[in-house]
Amino acid sequence: MVPVPLAVLLVLGAAAAALAEPLRFVDCGSIDGSIQEVNVSPCPTQPCQLHKGTSYSINVTFASKIESQGSKARVYGEMLHVDIPFPIPEPDGCKSGIQCPIQKGRSYSYLNKLPVKSEYPSIKLIVKWELVDDQDQMMFCWKIPVQITS
């Protein structure tokens, strides 16, 4: 029999591992890079339940196919095939885990936050996240379904 404190740790460890599961995503036009993995935490099931007033961690592992001095993120909420810009705290990829200049053939971990403001409506939509290089070409683009809830 497993001691109670150890059993609690095992359950918590399993829950934490479930929160970090790679997501199923749609690649929506990665040209200058290839996505290896997308993680949104916490998001144990899809569509991701995004609670108002909460911030979510984004981690994208990708390989660059080009050289670039910098990168910039653009995030949208896609509803009825219309992209509505979604502000993020730090659009500069070089301040989001990527060591710049970006080198061809190297893998990077892009890290950012997705804040869900209290005033957002409760709605189902698609989050579309793009990272463009210094020539405004798509390093990566991915989409996931989400549900914004109270």
Automatic annotation (TrEMBL):
Which stretches make up the MD-2-related lipid-recognition domain?
Answer: 25-146
Per the record's keyword annotation, is Secreted included, yes or no? Answer: yes
Secretion signal span: 1-20
- Reading the lineage from the top rank, the first entry is Eukaryota
Q: Which keywords accompany this UniProt record?
A: Disulfide bond, Secreted, Signal
Its gene is Npc2
- InterPro entries referenced in this protein's UniProt entry, alphabetically: Ig_E-set, ML_dom, ML_Npc2-like, NPC2-like
Q: Where does this protein reside within or beyond the cell? A: Secreted
User: What's a GO cellular component annotated to this UniProt protein?
Assistant: extracellular region
Record's protein name: NPC intracellular cholesterol transporter 2
Which species is this record about?
Podargus strigoides
Q: Which family does it belong to?
A: Belongs to the NPC2 family.
**Single GO MF annotation:** cholesterol binding
